[in-house]
Amino acid sequence: MEPRGPAPAALLGPLLLLLLLPLLLPQSGPAVSAQSAAAACSQSSNQSCTECLKNVSCFWCYTNNACLDYPVRKILPPSSLCPLSSARWGVCWVNFEALIIAMSVVGGALILGITICCCCCCCRKRRNHRSDKEEERAAREREERKVRQEERRAEMKSRHEEIRKKYGLFKEQNPYARFEN
Length: 181
Known about the structure:
Elements: H1 7-24, H2 30-43, H3 49-52, E1 58-61, E2 66-69, E3 87-88, H4 96-167
Antiparallel strand pairs: 1-2, 1-3
Keywords: Membrane, Signal, Transmembrane, Transmembrane helix
Subcellular location: Membrane
Signal peptide: 1-26
């Protein structure tokens, strides 16, 4: 049985990336990189949102105008650190609430699209399989009708021959033979 849908091929790229990511990253200790990121974020606190967001490990909080270290262990920053409506990451004009809603809509649309594509492919295969069966059945029925028609034709021919014999109307080989002397 062959694999269905684009799922295995689509997952292969991200899986390889996750496996090769430790090899691609610089080999510095986690404590050193965390300390340097936190220091870089705290240095950007008195600056603007755009300056803070130049470092991808930082996020900007509009409630206290602070550049904070993004909590990597959690997906979203906790509300005790900064409310989601005031948190900015990546760009200053999109807050986390809008980002979550947009990503949910895009993710849902992708899942829906993939599901519809898979269903269409499956239905097309079934339809093709059905049409093959229907064509085969129609050909069989045509052949059966043809055989019955030949049988009826032969039966009618034998009846006509019997009637000709009964009344003496034999079919002659050459119809012009009786006019010749």
